[in-house]
Amino acid sequence: MKILGSWLIKILAILGLLLSLSMMIFSDISITSSNNRLLAKTVISRVVNSSESSELALGQNILESSGLEDELLNSLPKKTVISTTPWEVYQMSSRFQKDTTLTAKDLKLPTKTAGERFISKFLVAGFNEEFKSDADQIKQAARSYQMAFYVILLCYLLSAVFILLGKRWAGIFAFLASLGMVGIGTLAFDKVNSVLATEIYSGMKVTMNSSFNLGVVVSGLVMILFFILQRKHKKG
């Protein structure tokens, strides 16, 4: 019975780690635009002024002079929320090692209406223009993200292995990884929001879902409870 109890504790602890890990890599990161029309006008102006593509500038001039631009902008929904996950960002970073060109699908931009397709084209062009000039830095950032992703997975794996070995302190690796991910993510998104506000549009924000914090709580509970239960089980 003692051996059975020990294995039951270990299995429950590992299930707790899996729950925490799923929260850390599959929870939503949301990009919110509070005023799509203002965002569209700002992006179009920046892209046309900075892009080397004469096709974009000509297209924008034709649409503006014909009055279609305002009509398309007015068809946009007032607000937009685009969601992604750390796992999807990892997949994108893997592709960036070969090609830093983005598509509307990569950015999860809405393309249901003519207005949405119109602004999506300019957003994609703007991002690709920036990526083209900073391709080496983008690739380095993608590699760094991949390495951080691997480190997090390794920490959770180490915790699982040490749990199976019955080490009371096993959960510390997963807890530190989840805590570090939320802490670094918070700092990174604060920086991203600052750049968005100054370089693109102050109405855009990137936020982390509360599930990330819950993932930290779960890993912390696994760490504490496994330590206590293992100690009691061995004494008993």
UniProtKB/TrEMBL annotation:
Keywords: Membrane, Transmembrane, Transmembrane helix. The chain crosses the membrane at residues 147-165, 172-189, 209-229. The keyword Membrane applies. This is Uncharacterized protein. It comes from Lactobacillus psittaci DSM 15354.
